[in-house]
Design goal:
This protein is mainly α. It has one domain: Heme Oxygenase, Chain A. The chain has helices at 6-21, 24-27, 30-35, 42-68, 73-87, 126-134, 152-165, 170-185, 188-203, 210-234, 241-268, 272-278. The structure holds fe (ii) ion.
């Protein structure tokens, strides 16, 4: 077996960061840049809400695959932290003496800690937060989060998440994780929040933005964890640098397809409402 050194790790980390940091979905996301200007109409906000709800809900499938395919007990548990938190287990802060929370609202529940010993609350499921976001937009349970609500580009993204992020090959899966976390920490939440704030002030004062704010807050620590994971993956037996980088690149292409789809729909004036009417639903 090849002996790896800290210098090898640093060189590899630099390659991975370069790949992610220079991908166009990180450097040049036309949709979120436009959305941040705050000019989206109610129909355009609804279209984003529906497509995002499909991705966010079907992400559970990818996360379950990630857990099932985990290469180490550590990775298995790290995957479950995310999966169970998504489903509604509230993080329990790990600092000694920190008060446990009985809240379910995203503006109140902890963004750090562990699901181990945490409490499950139906209302703390991230999908239920999105349902509450959809309510003042006139979107009900049957209009959010189902595969049938996804456009082809949204579904391509969701399927790539299962295939690449949930891959059986730990090198590929770790690469995809690294890519997703770094993309998510690079600022798209803030752009969406800026646009949603403007929309809320202009025409929908009761719109709860906590789903978006919670995720923005959680991202920085996710990215830090992923750096630790990169180091752990790098030194694990069988790790393949090229497959890691390929997984990262393929995953980012999937992410880009999602936003490109929203951008194309926006330019063509396609909204979820129009889609639903057009297909007779
Ligand atoms: Fe989430």
């Amino acid at each position: 077996m090849a002996i790896t050194t800290d210098r090898d790790l640093d060189a590899f980390r630099a390659r991975a960061e370069h790949l992610v940091g220079h991908h166009r979905v990180v450097t040049d996301n036309a949709y979120t840049r436009w959305f941040a200007q705050g000019e989206a109409t109610a129909d355009e906000v609804r279209h984003l809400a529906v497509q995002f709800s499909v991705f966010s809900h079907l992400f559970l499938e990818a996360q379950l695959h990630k857990v099932l395919n985990a290469g180490t007990l550590e990775a298995y548990r790290a995957g479950k932290e995310i999966l169970l938190n998504e489903l509604g287990v509230v993080f329990r802060p790990q600092r000694a003496g920190a008060p446990g929370s009985d809240d379910i609202d995203p503006d109140l529940v902890s963004t750090e800690g562990t699901v181990d010993g945490g409490r499950f609350r139906f209302g703390a499921a991230h999908f239920e937060w999105l349902l509450r976001f959809g309510e003042p937009l006139g979107l009900g349970f049957d209009q959010l989060g189902k595969r049938r609500h996804g456009t082809p580009s949204t579904l391509f993204f969701c399927d790539e998440l299962v295939r690449v992020y949930g891959s059986e090959d730990p090198s590929v899966a770790e690469g995809a994780s690294f890519a997703v976390e770094h993309w998510a920490a690079a600022g798209f939440w803030k752009e969406l929040i800026a646009g949603l704030r403007a929309f809320k002030e202009r025409e929908c004062p009761e719109l709860p933005l906590a789903f978006w704010a919670w995720h923005d807050k959680v991202e920085d620590q996710h990215a830090a964890h992923t750096d630790d994971e990169l180091a752990a993956a790098f030194s694990s037996p069988g790790f393949d640098q090229e497959r890691f980088l390929a997984g990262a690149a393929e995953m980012l292409d999937g992410v880009a397809a999602f936003w490109d789809g929203l951008e194309r729909d926006r330019r063509a004036g396609i909204t979820s409402v129009a889609r639903a009417e057009g297909s007779g639903r």
